[in-house]
Amino acid sequence: MKTRTTEKIIPPPPVHFVGDGFRVHNFIPGVHPLTMERMDPFILLDYNSKYYFPPTDRPRGVGVHPHRGFETVSIAYRGRIAHHDSFGNSGVIGEGDVQWMTAASGLLHKEYHEKEFAGRGGDFHMVQLWVNLPAKKKMSPPKYQPITNDQMGRYHLPGNNGTIEVIAGSYKGIHGPASTFTPVSLMNARLKAGATADFEFISSYNTALLVIEGSLLINGSDKAPADHFVLFSNDGEQFVIEAAEDSTALILSGEPIYEPIAAHGPFVMNTRTEIYQAFEDVENGKFGWLED
Ligand code: MN
Q1: Ligand 1 centre from 199 Cα, in Å?
Q2: Is residue 10 part of a domain?
Q3: The sheet that has 222-225: what strands, in order across it?
Q4: How far is the CA of 92 from the centre of ligand 1 (A)?
């Protein structure tokens, strides 16, 4: 097995707000070389690094907006997120939990800090990842997979050195609960100081990690501090991480879809015509209705 080397270790870019509740570093797409094509099938990664929001009785967030053509995966490390959609679905993503939302053919939704959390104030720390769908699946019906922390697959590192929480894909025979349309692996590596863990993915699969907390040494030589994004080359299968202190990293790897991408705001399709169609379908109520 060959070592997968690091291509680039990317510091967090300047923040911007999505609505008034998500203070994010946008890594994908935009930070060189993280185009939608480079990290295919991962087409967007917004990272709200740990940030304190003071108490408010008007929960912060982002109002009604549509999505079509892909999946949104929200991973909450700190804080709680509430969501509502145009088909009457709603829910809360709690600390340590994940919501895997298949927008596919389209819906309207809104995402806010959960009311009680907003009222109390506190640290907010989360990732939103968009996973593209192949052309054949873009018009599938929307669905949700709420994945609580206790439902994730758990691999315990030897010597009580930490845990790999498997959300999707598998790690050393431990499977994650998320069902995906194409091969995708997503996991949290929670390592004690000094612990190591190795990961193995097919070399053509686009692979990266985001340091959520702590600090890592990659393949024994490359330093990755907190909030840094590590892009791996497609030159081997295996990489090793070592925790310089107690650390958490989000590991992502997926088989590229290799299809043309036509993206405009909340729509990610294959052609411009399909983007125009999406605007028209929103106008005509095909995404349902949701009050702000
Ligand atoms: Mn959204």
Answers
A1: 30
A2: no
A3: 196-200, 238-243, 215-218, 222-225
A4: 14
Query: So what's the pLDDT on residue 292?
Result: 85
The reported pLDDT for the residue numbered 23 is 98
Contact criterion met (CB below 8 Å) for 253 and 278: no
Is 259 a member of any domain?
Answer: no
Which range of residues forms the domain containing residue 183? 15-254
Alpha carbon distance 73, 71 (integer Å): 6
Number of folded domains that form the chain: 1
Structural domain includes residue 205: yes
CA of residue 67 to ligand 1 center, whole Å: 7
CA–CA distance from 171 to each of 79, 94, 107, 147, 212 (Å)? Answer: 27, 24, 33, 17, 19
Task: Write the CATH number for 19.
Answer: 2.60.120.10
> Distance from the CA of 122 to the center of ligand 1, in angstroms?
22
Closest to 262 measured CA to CA, from 272, 277, 273: 272
Residue 64 has pLDDT above 90, yes or no: yes
β-bridge partners, 218 = 222, 241
State the distance from the centre of ligand 1 to the C-alpha of 37, rounded, in angstroms. 21
Ligand 1 midpoint to CA 232 (Å): 27
pLDDT, tens digit, for every residue of 75-96?
A: 999 999 999 999 999 999 999 9
Report yes or no on 162 lying in a domain.
Answer: yes
pLDDT at residue 214, as a whole number: 98
Q: Determine the Cα–Cα distance for residues 175 and 155; give it in Å rounded to an integer.
A: 9
pTM of the prediction? Answer: 0.98
Between the CA of 58 and the centroid of ligand 1 the distance, in Å, is 19
User: Tens digit of pLDDT for each residue in 150-204?
Assistant: 999 999 999 999 999 999 999 999 999 999 999 999 999 999 999 999 999 999 9
| CA of residue 287 to ligand 1 center, whole Å | 13
- Ligand 1 centroid – CA 98 distance (Å): 14
In this predicted model, what pLDDT tens digit does every residue of 174-189 receive, in sequence order? 999 999 999 999 999 9
